[in-house]
Amino acid sequence: MPTHSFSEKLKNVVISGKEVYPIVEGGKGVSVTNGRTAGAFAAAGAVGTFSGVNADTFDKDGKPIPYVYKATTRRERHEELIAQSSSGGIAQAKLAHEISAGRGRIHVNVLWEMGAAQQILENILEGAKGMVHGVTCGAGMPYKLGDIAEAHGVYYHPIISSARAFNALWKRSYSKTSKWLGSVVYEDPWLAGGHDGLSNAEDPDKPQDPYPRVAELRKTMNGFGLQETPIIMAGGAWHLKDWEHWLDNPEIGMIAFQFGTRPILTQESPVSDEWKKRLMVLEEGDVFLNHFSPTGFYSSAVNNDFIKELRGRGERQIEYRMEQEQLFSEPLPVGARGRPVYVQADDKPRAEKWIAEGYDEPMKTPDSTLIFVSKKKAEQIHIDQVECMGCLSHCRFSNWKDHDDYTTGKKADPRSFCIQKTLQDIAHGAGIDNELMFSGHNAFKFQQDPWYKGGFVPTVGQLVERILTGQ
Question: pTM of the prediction?
Answer without folding.
Answer: 0.92
